[in-house]
Amino acid sequence: MAGVVEGVSVRFLAWLGRRDPGYGAVRRAGRTAIVMPLLFALGSLVLRNGDVATFAAFGSFSMLLFVDFNGTMRERVQSQLGLAVTGAVLVCLGTLASHPVWLAAVAMAVVGFIILFVGSVSSVLASASTALLLAFILPVTLPGTVDSIGPRLLGWSLASAASILAITVLWPSPRRDPLRAGAIRACRALAARLGADVAVMLSDLDPATVADYERTVAESNEAVAALHSGFLGSVYRPTNLSTSARTLVRLVDELNWVHSVVSQSARHDALPTPASRRAGRAACRVKTEAAGLLDRGAELLESPGADPAELEAALVGLRESRMAVEDGAASDLPARQSGAIRSGGGDAARELISALDPGFRAQELSYAIAQVAGNIVLTAAAERRTWWERLLGRQPGNLAGTLHAAAERAAAQAERHSVWLHNSVRGAAALGIAVLLADLTGVEHSFWVVLGTLSVLRSNALNTGQNVLRGVVGTAVGVVIGAGLLFLIGTNATVLWILLPIAIFVAGTAPTVISFAAGQVGFTVTLVLLFNLVAPTGWRVGLYRIEDIALGCGVSLLVGLLFWPRGAAAALRQALAEAYADSSDYLAAAVAFGLGRCDEKAPAHPEPTGQAIRAASASRRLDDAFRTYLTERGSKRLPLSRVAASVTGVAGVRLAGDAILDLWKDHEVATDGDRSAAREELCRSSKVLTDWYHNLGRELVAQQSLPDPLPGDAIADGRLVDAVRRDLSDGAGKATATAIRMIWTGDYLDSIRRLQPEIVEPVGLLGGEASQTHAGFRRARG
After folding, report:
1. Phi, psi torsion values for 710, nearest 5 degrees
2. How far is residue 240's CA from residue 237's CA, in Å, rounded to a whole number?
């Protein structure tokens, strides 16, 4: 018998672990089941004050069950304390605005919008939004006076103190920083791949070396994919306003880009000529140093607060190697080939440009690695600041301050197509209408009308309608169960107090472990028990709950139909279109800036700071739209990893613009000739690329046939060769740095062109044009 029980327990724990990884829901529900009944008993039986009991009970419910902050224990306590203080302010405001009803409805809409919208600024604020809303919903739906503020604040304060004590003493959560852990793993996997890549290039391709290389390729692919899917799969963008969090989140896009660069480099590392072999050896040196930097960066991320001096020194060395590659790309080219080019040898020109390719790959990789290492250095520097430096807001490097970052994030969402703005408006309208209808219809418990509205509001009307059914059915089942319990136990208060923590635990775990409807069952049983402890009314309180939740669900359904009936897929298409358009505009502006430094006759262009900000803002809105798409119930048209590839492509376009900008930023304007022909060719390539991405966005939003990926244009490549032929070598037979930068700018544009087949197919399926897109994709690949 003992063996059977043990086997059942093991299987149950395994099932629970699959449903609730890390037992987060069980931990939150267990704490709430202990704390909430104790505080309710303190308020109702000891202090004998209904307001104290109600606000202590529901305050602990919201702060323990609906919130689970990440980070160190100190960071979690600070976040919990901030939630407590903000909630106390909302309790006061809600009480003062609780009557007349028009003021309560308007205040609910305004406060609801502010709470929901400021979640775009920080994941901490976003994860606390439900608890903050409850802190205002409860007092605004329970009419009170100024005299009510004292008891209500006392109840909320008791709940706040108990919640802080509970998260530190009752089954404390281990430090959770999935973004950091994923970045560490990706850094190490990419470092191993670079090392294996160098070993393959310098070996005779013996089977053991090749097998090791293939293993590291698979491991790096998996590690980077896990990092990106974990980042996009979180409900909220996993970063708060702290400096270290803001620098860490940049690593996701940058490590994705490094992975793309390394993958492309592996397809271009054949060394057919002496010049390319020399450049290849320089590329191997860069790869070796880059692998060392990634390993050091992973070690630094594993030890928060460690000294970044060693990584900074290695970063300086990598930059020097990158400069050596750029300089050596000119000096290593043989004068014989340069002379042939100057005399008009087209084949020699193409051979020489091919010899530049390993140098370009090394330059591209070293710049990408430098971005990763630089952000890790800033992360470590931010974590080493003293409390006084943090208090004064001193930032490492040239990072913006917290308030500036918050304003920038909020401004990014203040755009008419922003999913976050839409959700905030919809949520605020629904909550305000719910408060108004609860009063006009005269329901007995208006708080549950508003809570019902909040619990079922989702991204589109279809899913809201599904949750309406689940909510009402779950509530009805809960009434039946609660009525059965009351029929069996009558009004025995002792048994009710024993059952209350059990019901709370089930209500807290069921939504995660079983389903939304099961959670509604648990909440309804908890309500029946709670209200019968305050004022025994039997099972009829459950019928009031059905009436209230049905009204709230109806409000959610109505607002979902009126404000945003399109759903998350349409918003994702719009966000993709804007992100690719803004990122390609930034790329074109970076090219224009570089070409303005090619010769004295070129028109000068300023650094594209404004375009960079717009591209980053569009990328952030895309992240939020994709998360909404992931949380929307219903079948998806294609694997989410495929859609994620299209989202990742946006960062590739934007980061290529950063790299082109860096390539030219410190280059003095050339004074040794007129390069108008080469500039015109690069401008033409840039415009063709930008037009393609704009066209992609227009057709995607209109759900029309998407443009075919641009094929490699050998004729345009030949025109570029002809345009730079004169400038590839100077009077001493050496290729000039300006010409090499122009060729490498063209290489960056070509790398962005090669992204297109990976973008078009998945977004085409998202847009509903699968057959047409598949045909175009086959033509591009064939």
Report:
1. -70, 130
2. 9
